[in-house]
Amino acid sequence: MEKRITTPLTAEKVKDLRAGDSVLISGTVYTARDAAHKRLVDLLDKGEKLPIDVEDAIIYYVGPTPTKPGNAFGSAGPTTSYRMDPYAPRLLDIGLKGMIGKGLRSEEVIDAIKRNTGVYFAAIGGAAALIGKSVVKAELIAYEDLGAEAIRKLEVKDLPVVVVIDSEGNNLYQEGQQAYLDSLK
């Protein structure tokens, strides 16, 4: 089932999403990968303010290619999410609601998703140019020294994703595999 959501991503919106749902996201999405995540958690450890407000926010694990003239953003393929697993529970615990990436997540992240009414989306690998076209505006927010991995604030329109882990912990990767195996019987 295809759904449309607009940020901020509140707990009420998250509760309506189920593993396997196709979703088109519009609104604000932040970018950050592992180096930026480490810096964010280091700031939390020091009791300092983050450069972004993660409350009801979505972070997309992406390091875009250089932006071509006339475009707001470069190609935007998802990064493997497990690299953010050491940091994601901490961010979920302070209000982050959504994460976009690809691949499996740890049990600690899944527990934090359930505990905090969060959601994990997958972006389609191999569709980076198409995904990049969903970005209508991009602004560098923090950590310019990280280059493509700096934190950016994106304004997106109809960014295509799939719910992989919903707020109840249902996991499309497991359910899809089981459905396939059941179909072979």
UniProtKB/TrEMBL annotation:
InterPro entries: Fe-S_hydro-lyase_TtdB-typ_cat, Fe-S_hydroAse_TtdB_cat_sf. PANTHER family: L(+)-TARTRATE DEHYDRATASE SUBUNIT BETA, L(+)-TARTRATE DEHYDRATASE SUBUNIT BETA-RELATED. The keyword Zinc does not apply. The keyword Nucleotide-binding does not apply. This is Fumarate hydratase subunit beta. Signal peptide: none annotated. GO terms for molecular function: hydro-lyase activity. Keywords: Lyase. It comes from Clostridium collagenovorans DSM 3089.
